[in-house]
Amino acid sequence: MINSKNEKYLKIFLGLFSMTLMIYIGTTLLKRARVDFTQENLYTLSKGTKSILSKLDSPIKLKLYYSKTAANKGTEGLRAFNNHFLYVQDLLRQYTSHSRNNLTLEVIDPRPDTPEEEDALAYGLKKFNLTETERYFFGLVAENESGTENYRIF
Questions:
Q1: Is the CA virtual torsion 11, 17, 23, 25 positive or negative?
Q2: CB-neighbour burial class of residue 132 (10 A; exposed 0-12, middle 13-18, buried 19+)
């Protein structure tokens, strides 16, 4: 028979264990669960898009260049692009999750005078000079074994 002191400890232990288990389930199993409450299903991939992504047969590497640091230092209008960046990043992450591991996404914040900035320029992404030292990029590069495509700005 369990005495009342041990019963208290058992209840505390079971409560902590239950909370830990719920947190684990919430952060791992439900991580991929998505609900789109918009009327136009803005945040839901269409069946056609999912079909195309599932038929990819060769690896494609997506490089999303966004100068988030520069945008945060810029004007209010420039900081507004942060929301659009988050939308694009989320959409590309959905693409990668439906591509049977044929799409990979790398998000790059090209800082001035870094190899990342040099790569963005080499890919032909457009730069906007904000100040003498700060530059702004927002573009996407897609690479596979047959070549490279770039999309200069969203």
A1: negative
A2: exposed
Cα(132)–Cα(154) distance, integer angstroms: 24
Q: How far is CA 134 from the centre of its chain?
A: 24
**Confidence grade of residue 31 (pLDDT, cut at 50, 70, 90):** low
Q: What is the DSSP string of 80-149?
A: THHHHHHHHHHHHHHHHHTTTT-EEEEEE---TTSHHHHHHHHTT---EESSSS-EE-EEEEEEETTEEE
Specify the higher pLDDT residue, 89 or 131. 89
Residue 70 has pLDDT above 80, yes or no: yes
- 103-108 vs 60-66, strand pairing mode: parallel
Residue with tokens 């659009």: 84
Question: Using CA atoms, how far apart are residues 56 and 50, in angstroms rounded to an integer?
Answer: 10
CB half-sphere exposure, 136, CA atoms < 13 A: 19
CA gap 51, 107 in Å, rounded: 25
